């Protein structure tokens, strides 16, 4: 399972930060950062979700008010949102 994060879409509400420790506040530009992620295209970051963090990752995606976070299963299917 992977998380895909569109940082350009992020508006800095930081609800994801409260739900999963992989997201951190970047107060310099008012957006969240996804730790240990690889930028796969301009502004889009991807990283694997550890098995013990799957619930938190899914919840972080669900609470994002601008749907900047997507959870993708191993078959490439979008799970959340």
From TrEMBL:
Q: Does the keyword Transmembrane apply?
A: no
The UniProt GO MF terms for this protein read: iron-sulfur cluster binding; metal ion binding
Q: Output the InterPro entries linked to this UniProt entry.
A: Fe-S_cluster_ET
User: What keywords would UniProt list here?
Assistant: Electron transport, Iron, Iron-sulfur, Metal-binding, Transport
- Note the superkingdom of the native organism: Archaea
**Keyword Acetylation attributed:** no
* The protein, known as: Ferredoxin
Q: Which organism is it from?
A: Haloferax mucosum ATCC BAA-1512
């Amino acid at each position: 399972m992977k998380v895909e994060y569109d940082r350009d879409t992020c508006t800095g509400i930081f609800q994801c930060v409260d739900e999963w420790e992989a997201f951190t506040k970047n107060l310099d530009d008012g957006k969240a950062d996804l730790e240990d992620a690889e930028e796969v295209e301009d502004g889009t970051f991807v990283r694997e979700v550890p098995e013990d963090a799957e619930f938190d990752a899914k919840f972080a995606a669900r609470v994002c008010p601008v749907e900047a976070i997507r959870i993708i299963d191993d078959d490439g299917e979008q799970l959340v949102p």
